[in-house]
Amino acid sequence: HDENLQRVLPTLTDAGLKLNMHKCKFNQPSLNGHTISKDGLQPDQDKVTAVIHAPAPHDTSSLRSFLGLASWYSKFIPDFATVIEPLRAVLRDSTDLSFEWTTEAHSSFTSFKDLIVNSPALALYDPELPTYVKIKMRELSLLHQELFFSAERKYSTVEREALACVWAVERWRTYLWGRRFVLRTDHQALTTLLTSKGSGRAGLRIARWSARLLCFTYDVTYRPGNQNVTADCLSRLPLTAENEATEEPDMIAAVFKESLCAISLPEFTSASEICPELSLLRNQIEKGWPKCKKGLPENLAPYFQIQHELSVHGSLILRLTDRLVVPASLRARIVDLAHEGHQGIRLRELFWWPQLDKFVHSVIASCVNCQFSDKVVITAPWDCRYAIVFTDYYSKWPEVAFSSTVTTDVIRFLATVLSREGNPMYLVSDNGCQFTSHAFSTFLQHLKSSVYYPKANGVVKRFNRVLKECIQTCERSHSSWKQMYIEVFSFTFNSTPHLSTGYSPYFLAHGREPRLPANVHISSPKVSDCPQNYGSELATRMDAAFETVLLHHEEQKQKREYYYNKDTQFRPYACGDLVWIDDPTTQRQKLSPNWTGPFKVVSVDEKGLLYKLVDVKYPQAATRVIHYDRLK
User: Fold this and answer.
1) Binning pLDDT at 50, 70 and 90, where does residue 625 land?
2) How many CB atoms lie within 10 A of CB 474?
3) Confidence of residue 278 (pLDDT cuts 50, 70, 90)
4) How far is it, in rounded angstroms, from Cα 543 to Cα 547?
5) Beta strands of 149-256 (E only): which ranges?
6) Residue 168 sits in the same domain as residue 109
7) Residues 108 and 169 in one domain
8) DSSP 8-state code for residue 527
9) Cα–Cα distance between 460 and 393 in angstroms, integer?
10) What mean pLDDT is predicted for residues 457-476?
């Protein structure tokens, strides 16, 4: 205790930290309800006395309080989960209004008191001795500490045995991480299933549990149940001889790889001692750093910026409190070990050396398996790949939403717009799977445009072109406010008069022009204070705008028809004609055909623009509805 204290206090002084003496306690044999002595760890006698005189719980609140105290001392109680189960059953069956104290619960209550009074002392952990984890799975509990959940009780015996092993190792990871230990079980199948030999034989559930043990270095051994009598963490009996004060070394994160052995603490320490770079670094830390790095050796220059984060612990060097500085001889091996689990640059949570990220990135970039399984690079802004656009054909008012998926987000977006604006007379969409799914058909009935004919929904396609230009501009400017950029763009678009209507979408939707930033210092137009008069004025403006919009639409329609028919000869097909289809789904190569078919015309709409076709070669196939422009 005194030796550890003499190392801690100077370290705090060097770091410029101060301690409040009124909050500090030294040479205390009791801590957090436990008594620490040469014999080991025992419950505090004052707490034990409080448990002995504790009255039986009379409601759920007092029962929860007692269970919390009991759980705190669970490590001293053999078969704790089974002993305390009747109390937990009372808590599960009770409510705030009904509380039934059963005979079994009272027996469990008194049994716990007897066991805590006669509880053994737990020997202090000695890292210099071999470590054994001895597993004994009970029918209803995990190592006497935790009960199996109802679903876990349905597992097979081998699965419950494997779960007990994983639970025990993770519970005692503080003692096991970074050093080799022996996992001893009375279930012989686990000697294969929890090692690299059984990686291809274990079921998916045991394989997932085995993956959780990859960061530990262990050997699995089998001992029959009649010989595995000490399979409990409480079996650490007090040592007869006095424990000499030993310095517990810092634990190293041992990263597992099936084909290679994990790096042990002695190996890491030895490599740190003989590493020339770390030897210079240790000497520099001990004698102090200069004010500038001009006179430092070249290989110590990267450490100058983090000099206050480095500390020496024996032969090891730590950055902050939990990252080991790795010697040059082990860097490639550590990255190789960690990369076997394909965890990318998470290695820096455990280790550090100069240019660590660059080193790891180069390893990942050269790994063929990582490149095959890596996530697809998302090129759309703020990780949203899709833009959902809803446009009013009359006012040209657009609604835009961005999403990473287009399955249920389309329905949610339309429900939001329609609940605010009301239902349209009809709704037109393309033939995307999100609009033809069963979920969408149950949401609403709508019209679908011709396949691979964007002109059929030209208003939306034209706006998408402008929206795309806006997003490209946003990308080029590297704006960090991309969502706000799009919202500003939408407001600007809605405030600009549209060529086909002569009015801005905002005016046709609200009956007035928007108040722009340039209008802040200009007085607003006067409006009637009477709601009825304002309503009449608004209706007059909207009626006049409606007539003007119809005229503009008709003029634009005639102009488009003139230019379209100028060089086009319209020759509609009749039922029974054989036609060819321009199919953009075929791979267009130099020698590949541009047309597929032939197809037979089954029916024609009244305008002669949409044709229902059937494949001549495969008449049993589904019919297609194709626009005139894609036929010949």
Assistant:
1) confident
2) 18
3) very high
4) 6
5) 181-185, 218-222
6) no
7) no
8) -
9) 9
10) 71
